[in-house]
From TrEMBL:
Keyword Kinase applies: yes
GO molecular function, one term: DNA binding
Pfam families documented for this protein: AAA_22 (PF13401), GerE (PF00196), HTH_77 (PF25872), TPR_12 (PF13424)
GO BP: regulation of DNA-templated transcription
PANTHER family: HTH-TYPE TRANSCRIPTIONAL REGULATOR RV0890C-RELATED (PTHR47691:SF3), REGULATOR-RELATED (PTHR47691)
Identification of the protein by name: Protein kinase/LuxR family transcriptional regulator
Length: 770
């Protein structure tokens, strides 16, 4: 997993840290029961009913009960159906370095995983989500999908749980009874948060009942109304709500529909905003996900909202809970709940301002991309990568805008060129290629940046192993560069071709092409490209037979990166030195370089270089007579390679050495022992594998697995030892047969066993330490 259990996309924190849960005990229990009976459960309901928060609560309860991993993927910010699978893969920590369809990479990586995958806000991507969920649960028997959507996915076997509003009080209920209703408890909780002195007495019973019934028990409506407790008494608040909602029932019988209730409440919140606050609400709806104050000042100011007042207006919208504040190291950002943002989109459209402010949004992020290109090597490199990660959803929206017209597409091509390292560093190969394709198709024939994005697409295709696309894009890039006389683009074409030669083990050609490209990069003052090419050049020169020169080139590349404070290319330069020493040089130096790479990984978070590094360390262990350590490291490396969707044997220089090392290890240990050690290495989480590689802890995967058995799994393991069948276990414990099957699969996987007899033996030994 990219961030371990509870990986996030679109939330700065677990909502349990943002606001406490109120109620939903019955729905949580029912959702968990459905998850035991089906591999796909969808929580449905209107916007504002609390589907996301319930999904978090169900996921937390599931993990506590099963110790399964949980991944939470918010899709509210995603607009491109084609990016659904890459987005999920990115949250899960799976790489994008395969020419195979992304769905195949995800399925292969998840087939042995025990995972609850939460897909939040599926309604605008319902067809894609339905296909994805159906594919995953069919192919991955231990993966369960929990979706939230305003409509069901419509997949065979899907269990649908409509999420009702919170319980509301009845007319005439006593004060004591009213205080136990979920909607009242939520209102009191939120009102107290904004007005700490807020207190209820028996005199408040009638207006409290009236208020909660008016709000239909919708959590978002209750939270928006509770903000007013700071300025209004409870009776004043209820009276004003009565007047606001009377418009809805004027020409109809009965109560308004719940989506109309939500609309009316948001309308009321909008009416209570000042003019500048309404403007900012509408204009800020062009952002996707979160945004910072600088962006708000640049994009949203103008007319009745001067730039110098934006901070004050942001503060007002925070007070009204229209904007939510989220912190990150070194700063603050703002976001809207999706229902609130959608309302703002509608208001902006009514004023005819959508095109203007989407363009201003694009211009701001085009400027940001330009600053990144200028400062990538000049300032805080990791800080810039972190900023672009936070702005990823906004970059997508800006690029989507650029694909609308040839002139805008030229701006988009420039943006892609400016942030080229972002796609490479983050491994967003499929997405990078998609944007190149869309903008290339939209741009005019003479767009000046085309050669630069074509070579980028060719490089991304190369690392994915899509060689026909790689060659096609490089040929196009070379032709465009020649036509336009762009020597720098031509240099990048040479660099990518050199990289292909390096992968193909044609070291003489790689050395020649890298050398020529470096000369051109230096002539044009492109130091980033110079550093990128230099460590590859050093490796090619070394493996082409000139060890001393190769060692000198690599040492200089590392030193230049260190002087600049550069970290990403430095990790690869250190790995290149380690690989060359492993293949032809000093194993002790190779191990020291690998150690430095792994310590840099804590800052860079690049799984691909970790896979390469563990592979080299396994080879070093083999050649220094440590076959057990080599087998464990090989297993750990292969698991990393599996998650990134690639294999080291794609790099021909490593194929024969890796096969030879494997033969040495299996001969030294024997097949059974070698397989056991390999499996133990593959079972380690990546953090544990790195710690083991750094010799900071011993491997204890089987001991750790045993300790991870939940109370229910331990109970079932002991019943297995009695010789009962799965159906007999289900009958004894009063649970579904499918649930028993799933628990036994978990037990076997955690203990590393293949049959029930081994489980019974483990139970016996656990009970008799002697």
């Amino acid at each position: 997993m990219a961030d371990g259990v509870g990986s996030l996309a679109g939330w700065s924190a677990d909502p349990t840290e943002v606001t406490s849960y109120v109620g939903r005990d019955a729905e949580t229990g029912e959702a968990r029961r459905l998850l035991e009976a089906s591999s796909l459960v969808t929580l449905t309901g209107p916007g504002g009913v609390g589907k996301t928060r319930l999904a978090w609560r169900v996921a937390a309860a599931h993990r506590e009960a099963t110790a399964d991993e949980v991944a939470f993927v918010s899709l509210a910010e995603l607009r491109e159906p084609a990016l659904l699978v890459p987005t999920v893969a990115n949250v899960l920590g799976f790489g994008d370095r395969s020419a195979k369809p992304a769905i195949e990479v995800v399925v292969e990586a998840l087939q042995a995983s025990r995972l609850l995958l939460v897909l939040d806000n599926c309604e605008h991507l319902v067809d894609s989500c339905a296909w994805f969920a159906d594919t995953v649960v069919r192919a991955c028997p231990q993966v369960t999908v929990l979706a939230t959507s305003r409509q069901s996915l419509g997949v065979a076997g899907e269990r649908v749980l409509p999420v009702p509003p919170l319980a509301i009080p009845e007319q005439g209920d006593s004060f004591e009874r009213v205080m136990n209703d979920e909607s009242v408890r939520l209102f009191v909780d939120r009102a107290t948060a904004v007005a700490p002195s807020f207190r209820l007495t028996e005199e408040d019973t009638e207006p409290l009942i009236r208020l909660c019934r008016r709000l239909d028990g919708l959590p978002l409506a209750i939270e928006l109304a509770a903000v007013r407790a700071r300025a209004l008494s409870l009776r004043q608040l209820a009276d004003r709500l009565d007047r606001q909602f009377s418009v809805l029932t004027k020409d109809r019988r009965g109560r308004p529909e719940r989506h109309e209730t939500m609309r009316a409440l948001i309308d009321w919140s909008h009416d209570l905003c000042t003019g500048p606050e309404r403007l900012l609400w509408a204009r800020a709806s062009v952002f996707s996900g979160s945004f910072d104050l600088d962006a708000a000042e640049q994009v949203c100011s103008g007319g009745e909202l001067p730039r110098e007042r934006v901070l004050e207006v942001v503060d007002g919208l925070l007070d009204k809970s229209i904007l939510l504040r989220e912190e990150y190291p070194g700063g603050v950002r703002y976001r809207m709940l999706e229902s609130v943002r959608e309302y703002g989109v509608g208001r902006l459209s009514e004023t005819g301002g959508t095109a203007e402010f989407r363009k201003r949004h694009r211009d701001w992020f085009a400027e940001l991309a330009g600053r990144y290109a200028t400062e990538w090597l000049e300032t805080d490199q990791l800080g810039w990568i972190g900023r672009l990660r936070r702005e990823h959803a906004n970059l997508r929206v800006a690029l989507d805008y650029c694909a609308g017209a040839p002139g805008d597409a030229a701006v988009g091509l420039r943006m892609l060129r400016d942030v080229k390292e972002f796609w490479i560093v983050r491994g967003l190969n499929t997405e990078g290629r998609m944007w190149v394709r869309r903008l290339d198709e939209a741009a005019a024939p003479d767009a000046p940046e085309r050669a630069h994005v074509l070579w980028l697409s060719g490089f991304l295709a190369l690392v994915q192993g899509d060689l026909p696309a790689h060659r096609h894009m490089l040929d196009r890039a070379a032709a465009e560069a020649e036509t336009s006389g762009d020597e720098l683009a031509a240099a990048y074409v040479l660099h990518v071709r050199a990289y292909a030669a390096l992968i193909g083990n044609d070291m003489a050609e790689a050395s020649r092409l890298f050398g020529t490209a470096i000369d051109l990069f230096r002539a044009h003052g492109d130091e980033g490209a110079d550093l990128w090419a230099s460590y590859n050049h050093g490796l090619a020169v070394w493996l082409d037979g000139d060890m001393d020169r190769g060692r000198a080139v690599l040492a200089e590349a590392v030193q230049r990166c260190e002087r600049r404070g550069e970290v990403f290319w430095r990790g690869w330069a250190l790995w290149s030195r380690a690989a060359a020493e492993y293949l032809q040089g000093d194993l002790a130096v190779a191990e020291r370089c690998c150690e430095q790479v792994l310590r840099l990984h804590e800052r860079v978070d690049d799984r691909v270089v970790v896979g390469f590094t563990l592979t080299v360390l396994a080879g070093c262990a083999t050649r220094t007579g440590r076959p057990n350590r080599a087998a464990i490291l090989q297993g750990a490396a292969m698991d990393v390679w599996r998650t990134v969707g690639a294999w080291p044997t794609r790099y021909e220089a490593f194929t024969e050495p890796l096969l030879a090392d494997t033969d040495v290890v299996t001969t030294a240990l024997g097949w059974e022992v070698a397989v056991k050690e390999f499996a133990d290495g593959a079972a380690m989480p990546i953090a544990d594998a790195i710690a083991y590689a750094l010799e900071e802890r011993p491997p204890e995967p089987r001991k750790r697995a045993a300790q991870l058995l939940t109370k229910r799994e331990t109970e079932i393991a002991h019943v297995i030892a009695e010789g009962l069948t799965n159906q007999e276990i289900a009958d004894r414990l009063g649970i579904a047969r499918r649930t028993v099957d799933t628990h036994i699969d978990h037990i076997l996987t955690k203990l590393g066993y293949s049959n029930r007899v081994q489980v019974a033996t483990w139970v016996t030994r656990s009970a008799d330490p002697a």
